[in-house]
């Protein structure tokens, strides 16, 4: 009788499954190794390190341009008719220059009358002096009484007083006659003209307004927090709304602070910059300026190394394995292509100098030649 052995396929299947899994794992590991070997850098970059430089410190402010001082030129004599107006708005005038004239016929006649009265008084005074001199010579002889002599002497003094009064009246008429010519009280620029030929104006009526010496000032509004950083003599660069640039120097700082805005006025004298178009700066213009507060040391990086995302500033530090790490930093001043780093960056860090905006945290980079200091 033949003995028949039954063959079970289960162990064979288990062995085959184990072999297949092992081969799959080996293939996956090989593929992972290949992937590691084929990782490519995200970007070729140049690197730089933070530099300690000196940056100028500025204080920015806004304000209006105004006249340094305005002079009001008015009529000193009333009731006269304007016969000529010789100046207009925008004219540059010199001190003592005739701006307008009034009709002088009436005052001329009054001056002539006063001159005649002065001559009459002088003649009467001469006659009284002669009588008084004779009375003095006869005083010792007794030909005249004491009362008569006193009358002659009193008449002499009265006549002299009348001469002085007549002379004063004549001088008044001469002054009024001179006031028929309206003259500039100072050199400057005519900013307003109210004078009209043919008008009869009263005494004290304003005829012209004059910007004294043509000087302008910038009235900058500075907050009370920043006010202590300014002193008399601090220089500034002012840019008017028209684009005109002017040099400024603090003349004085306002003694009070507005309780509503918490700002004070800083009065800055303005002068034209050599070669700059300053002619378009006018009183009443809005202007923006920067006060020069000196220079202070600062740690800076090139501006292209800075990346702004979601309202925050970042730089990318390159690690030893050529992968970048995103560092959040606090920035300060921007000047001449460099930005001040206040915190968040070690002084010896190696950072991406260009192309940082194309990188993400953890990217692999290829290093090019180190960037020259900027």
Describe this structure in words.
- There is one protein chain.
- This protein is an alpha+beta fold and 374 residues long.
- The model is unreliable at 1-17 and 27-37 (pLDDT under 50).
- Helix 2 packs antiparallel against helix 3 (146-178).
- The longest helix is centred in the first third of the chain and has 33 residues, at 105-137.
- The protein folds into 4 domains: 43-54 and 298-367, conserved putative lor/sdh protein from methanococcus maripaludis s2 fold, CATH 2.40.420; 59-68 and 214-296, Efflux pump adaptor protein, beta barrel domain (Elongation Factor Tu (Ef-tu), domain 3); 77-102 and 182-213, RNA polymerase II/Efflux pump adaptor protein, barrel-sandwich hybrid domain (OB fold (Dihydrolipoamide Acetyltransferase, E2P)), CATH 2.40.50.100; 104-179, Helix Hairpins, CATH 1.10.287.
- Strands 3-12-15-14-13-16 form a 6-stranded antiparallel beta barrel. Strands 4-11-9-6 form a 4-stranded antiparallel sheet, with no helix packed on it.
- Strand 13 and strand 14 (245-253) form a beta hairpin.
- It has helices at residues 10-37, 105-137, 146-178; strands at 43-45, 47-48, 51-67, 70-74, 80-85, 92-93, 98-102, 181-183, 188-193, 200-201, 206-212, 216-223, 235-240, 245-253, 263-272, 286-302, 307-309, 312-318, 324-335, 338-343, 351-352, 365-367.
- The chain is rod-shaped.
Q: Report helical residue fraction.
A: 25-40%
**How large is the radius of gyration?**
48 Å
Under CATH, the homologous superfamily of the largest domain reads Efflux pump adaptor protein, beta barrel domain
Distance between the termini: 102 Å
Shape: rod-shaped
Number of structural domains: 4
Residue-averaged pLDDT, rounded? Answer: 84
Note the main sheet: 6 strands, antiparallel, barrel
Number of strands: 22
SS summary, helix count: 3
């Amino acid at each position: 009788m033949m003995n028949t052995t039954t063959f079970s396929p289960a162990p064979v299947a288990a062995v085959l499954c184990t072999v297949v899994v092992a081969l799959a794992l080996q293939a996956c590991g090989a593929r992972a190794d290949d992937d590691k070997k084929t990782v490519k850098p995200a970007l070729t970059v140049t690197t730089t390190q933070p530099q300690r430089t000196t940056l100028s410190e500025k204080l920015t402010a806004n304000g209006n341009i105004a006249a340094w001082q305005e002079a009001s030129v008015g009529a000193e004599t009333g009731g006269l008719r304007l016969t000529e107006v010789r100046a207009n708005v925008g004219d540059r005038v010199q001190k003592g220059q005739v701006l307008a004239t009034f009709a002088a016929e009436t005052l001329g006649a009054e001056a002539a009358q006063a001159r005649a009265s002065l001559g009459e008084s002088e003649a009467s005074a001469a006659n009284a002096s002669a009588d008084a001199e004779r009375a003095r010579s006869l005083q010792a002889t007794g030909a005249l009484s004491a009362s008569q002599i006193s009358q002659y002497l009193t008449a002499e003094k009265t006549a002299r007083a009348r001469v002085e009064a007549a002379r004063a009246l004549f001088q008044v008429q001469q002054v009024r006659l001179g006031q028929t010519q309206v003259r500039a009280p100072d050199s400057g620029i005519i900013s307003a003209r109210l004078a009209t030929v043919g008008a009869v104006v009263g005494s004290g009526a304003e005829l012209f307004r004059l910007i004294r010496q043509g000087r302008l000032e910038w009235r900058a509004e500075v907050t009370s927090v920043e006010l202590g950083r300014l002193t008399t003599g601090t220089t500034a660069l002012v840019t008017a709304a028209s684009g005109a640039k002017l040099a400024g120097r603090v003349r004085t700082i306002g003694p009070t602070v507005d309780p509503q805005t918490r700002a004070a006025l800083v009065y800055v004298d303005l002068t034209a910059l050599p070669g700059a178009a300053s002619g378009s700066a006018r009183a009443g213009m809005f202007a923006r300026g920067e006060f020069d507060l000196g220079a202070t040391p600062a740690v800076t990086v090139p501006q292209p190394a800075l990346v702004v995302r979601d309202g925050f500033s970042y730089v990318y530090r390159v690690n030893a394995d050529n992968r970048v790490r995103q560092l959040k930093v606090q920035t300060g001043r921007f000047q001449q292509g460099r930005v001040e780093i206040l915190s968040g960056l070690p002084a010896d860090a190696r950072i991406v100098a260009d192309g940082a905006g194309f990188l993400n945290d953890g990217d692999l980079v290829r290093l090019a030649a180190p960037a020259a200091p900027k």
